[in-house]
Amino acid sequence: MRTQDMLRWLWRSLTAGRSRNLLSALGVAIGIAAVTTLTGIGEGVRLYLLDNFSQFGSHLVAVTPGKVTTQGISGGIISTVRPLTLEDADSLQRLPGVEQVVPVISGTAELKAGGLLRSSDLLGVNHQAADAWRFSVARGQFLPDDDSKRPRALAVLGSKLAAELFPFKDPLGEFVRVDNRRFRVIGVMAPKGQFLGFDLDDVIYLPAALALAIFDRESLMEIDVVYRPELTDQQINRRIFNHLYRRHGREDFTLYSQQDMLASLDKVLTIIKAAIGGLGGISLLVGAVGIFTIMSIAQQERIPEVGLLTALGANRYLILILFLGEAVTLALAGGVAGLLIVVATQSLLALAVPGLPLVIQPLFLFAALLLSALVGLLAGLLPAWRAMRQDPVQALHGG
């Protein structure tokens, strides 16, 4: 059989049952669109979260009070033998390879300024926080390098907080009251956006020692250590662990490497993305069942035609190729339609939900086409095999 005859036979087969073939292709299209879109959303969420976590740098180790047990409960929540103190943070600064050390205390406080009362997030840090976390100051300066135990009552405002507390004047040099303590504003941060739902622009930055007094706490919530790129996280972890173990006399703290957290987060999000894609795969399975059903019906309807082809000299493998070609073409048509649905859906979502992290990579589109072809191949394999094995004499008599 010539190639032209094969294509004509294939076209006639696809147009013979337009309605049922269209429904089968539609099933594949919906499946491909669901798998590609859901996988794209999963990939977008993965990249979004990784970008949020890595914006603070990858050479960072967080020290928290209390040792995490195998049950995941921090001993620091119940009873910490020795809290993480400002002295601990100052001592870590002297370790070889350490660039910045940031004591962290956080909470919510009521702020008063110019007759306005507002609740906002509060971060108690030191002068190194902006450099360590890669934050930029838009106006003024960040907290100065004061004595960690006796800092001056100075404050730095996030961009959003500054605009709301001082809507009609420059906040620099003005005063803000926090827990009946008066702080002079010396700086306003550049817009930073949100981090996992936490608005970094709606924050007031105070010296850590004064934040501890405001919240009536003894222990820091965290100490962030930024180390030099030439060191590995294992090396810096070992130095920090040995240093704090000597100071505390026991392991009553926990170290979290930023690289370990990013790796663990990437693994979890990859699994979630695969699970989301698997949900969309159910639709694709429905489309495959549709193609299998259509090809099985076509194989039964064309028994005399198969017998005639065989009698005219067509070998069995040609019969196999003809039936498989029909199944694959039908699935590919559905795959192309599915990709058109994906493009339309992406455009609509970009308009309706601009912040939705949807990432459709060209590799996803190519893989979707291959997947649709594979679905057609697998769904048409059994009907094609039956047609190939049909006895020519019986086929000429209608089976």
TrEMBL record:
It is a multi-pass membrane protein. InterPro entries: ABC3_permease_C, MacB_PCD, Macrolide_Exporter_MacB. Pfam families: FtsX, MacB_PCD. The chain crosses the membrane at residues 21-42, 274-297, 317-343, 363-385. Its main location: membrane. It is found in: Cell membrane. Residues 22-240 form the MacB-like periplasmic core domain. Residues 280-392 form the ABC3 transporter permease C-terminal domain. It comes from the Bacteria. The keyword Cell membrane applies. The keyword Transmembrane applies. Keywords: Cell membrane, Membrane, Transmembrane, Transmembrane helix. PANTHER family: ABC TRANSPORTER PERMEASE YTRF (PTHR30572:SF4), MEMBRANE COMPONENT OF TRANSPORTER-RELATED (PTHR30572). Belongs to the ABC-4 integral membrane protein family. This is FtsX-like permease family protein. It comes from Corallincola spongiicola.
